[in-house]
Amino acid sequence: MTNRIRVLLFVGIALFSGVSAASAQTASLKAELLKDWLDMKETIHKLADAMPEDKYSYKSTPAQRDFGQQVTHIAGANVLNLRFLGGKAAAPTISRTATSKAEAIKAMDASFDYGTALINEQTDQSLMGIVQTNAFLGPSSRARVVWFLIGHTWDIYGQMVVYLRLTGGTPPASQRP
């Protein structure tokens, strides 16, 4: 009987210490959202930088945006929709008609920096607050607005990858050492 009590005591202590360790590692909506946002900025920046300057006007068909317009489209969509979050950070003035690689990337990076500043102003609770957006998104949590923009950027990323490959480039995420 004494061995049985020792085993149960040992198991109980092991379980209790596991619960304590798990509860000490709580998730943070803000931290996860910020990580996804910063990762997206890094990924899309690398892709935008991978296209040579002389191919920024490339488009896969006449009806499509050219590569540079894709970059500035991301910037414009970010700034337009991030304003729904509210906050003290000032929205950057970006040129949606930038034609050079440097101008387009600068606008896109500024839009992501604006998002970073706004996310940093938030708390987990305020990120779950509902804001009025446009007719497309409708009433949404602040977190949903940011994750929508990440999804939008992934969509444009997929198009930009095709442009880069059609011009002979390899996306940074696909390059092997």
Overview of this protein structure:
This protein is mostly helical and 177 residues long. The protein has a single domain, classed as Four Helix Bundle (Hemerythrin (Met), subunit A), CATH 1.20.120.450. The chain is 62% helix and 2% strand. It contains six helices and two strands; from the N terminus they run H-H-H-H-H-E-E-H. It has helices at 2-24, 29-50, 67-82, 101-120, 124-127, 142-166, and strands spanning 130-131, 140-141. Strands 1-2 form a two-stranded antiparallel sheet. Helix 2 (29-50) packs parallel to helix 6 and helix 3 packs antiparallel against helix 6 (142-166). Residues 5-17 and 19-23 have low confidence and may be disordered.
Keywords:
single chain; 177 residues; mainly alpha; Four Helix Bundle (Hemerythrin (Met), subunit A); two-stranded antiparallel ribbon; 2 strands; 2% strand
Total of DSSP H or I helical runs spanning 4+ residues: 6
The succession of helices and strands, N to C, reads HHHHHEEH
Which CATH architecture would you pick?
Up-down Bundle
The major β-sheet equals:
2 strands, antiparallel
Strand arrangement across the biggest beta sheet: 1-2
Draw up the topology in text.
Elements: H1 2-24, H2 29-50, H3 67-82, H4 101-120, H5 124-127, E1 130-131, E2 140-141, H6 142-166
Antiparallel strand pairs: 1-2
Helix pairs in contact: 2-4, 2-6, 3-4, 3-6
Please sum up the structure shown.
The protein is mostly helical and 177 residues long.
